[in-house]
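Hi everyone, sorry if this is the wrong subforum. Our group has a chain we'd like a structural model of before ordering constructs, and none of us has done structure prediction before. Sequence below.
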Amino acid sequence: MSDLLRQRIVDLLKKNPRVDPARLNKMILKFQQEGGVRLGEILVEEGLVSQPDWLAVLAAGLELPPINLSRLKIDPSLAELVPERIARAYHVVPVSKIGTQLSVAMADPLNVLALDDIARLTSLELSPVIASEQDIDAAIQQLYQGPVEKFQAIWAGSVEEGAASEEQEEV
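Answer:
Right subforum, don't worry. Here is the predicted structure as tokens:
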């Protein structure tokens, strides 16, 4: 993350009334001392901001739209564009394709290597959107599960529904 972008995000955090400026400064120092850790991870882990608040700040700072993947039905054909190993390695999930434009949800939309590799692989123009790591994990699991896993998921759901029905009938 460039210094200019980092400062923009810090300024946005300081404007948030739920963020204590003294704690924020302390977390920024911790971030600078712990190389290899993302600022958002530290802020969320330490409870300074919630995951949704961090995503909103990051989206505003990067001028990229956030997306809630748990509310989105992803077209299974998109799995053919980005192989599962690439999606898992870069922590990305394709969410839509319109013409030559592929939208990919990412927890780290600044990962230029991921964007370059996926663009080269797909020969499409990429449009990154921001999503939480948890949402991306769940979307990858759902998008790339094979026929056996899909059957198991459906079966588990029907067994749970059946058990709930039986419990209601007994009452």
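For your construct planning: Helices lie at 3-15, 21-33, 39-45, 51-62, 84-90, 112-122, 133-144, 147-170. Residues 147-170 form the longest helix (24 residues).
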